Amino acid sequence: RGPAGDQRLRYINTSPLRNDLELKPFDPSVASFGKGGASVTDVALEDEAGNRLAWVVGGETVTLTIRAVADRELRGAIIGFFVRDRLGQNLFGDNTVLASADEPLRVAPGEAIEARFVFDMPVLPIGDYSINVAIAEGNQAEHVAHQWIHDALIFKSHASSVTHSLIGIPMREIAIGLAAAEDLKEQSE
Q: Averaged over 122-140, what is the pLDDT?
């Protein structure tokens, strides 16, 4: 359960609708492409204590950690990711461009780089998913991809409360009740 907490998760996580996501470990030999000035060395989803996860439950706070090493000097190193469904549709993702916009990260040859993305894992429909990762150099508009790895992490959603959308967002609050008569009168005026 994430810090803000989705009030429904207490019920969902004790039912057959709990969003169990089974993770396969990162395989550094999976196919990739790019210019070759840097290499991704590790990709993992971790819990809030930094422990590598083999299972995640949708709605939990996780950290996606991507580690890389520079093979040459990098000026303005960028690391990013996309989570894709089985059809290859980008469901969500982000990169480090804004985190270092004021001072682009310079990396010497042989230096290690680590990017961390902390987020509440969305609730995903039953199916197969992957996380694609990349290390690049430059900025959002102009950059060189040094390594892009499709399917760096593969995972499977075994059960879900989501049936009619691509992802479910953990809700901070959902409420329903009767409105006071004076509230309705004010809205109609």
A: 94
Q: How far apart are CA 75 and CA 157, in angstroms?
A: 38
Bridge partner residues of 156 (DSSP) = 22, 128
Alpha-carbon distance 43 to 34, whole Å?
17
Residue-wise DSSP of 8-36: THHHHTTSTT--EEEEPPP-TTS-EES--
Note whether 36 and 146 are within 8 A (CB): yes
pLDDT in tens, 38-89: 999 999 999 999 999 999 988 889 999 999 999 999 999 999 999 999 999 9
C-alpha angle 103/104/106, rounded to 5°?
115
pTM of this prediction?
Answer: 0.84
Backbone angles phi, psi at 182, to 5 degrees: -65, -30
- Name residue 85's amino acid: D
Quick one: tokens of 4? 């803000």
**What value does the mean pLDDT of the chain take?**
88
Q: Which one-letter DSSP state was computed for residue 52?
A: B
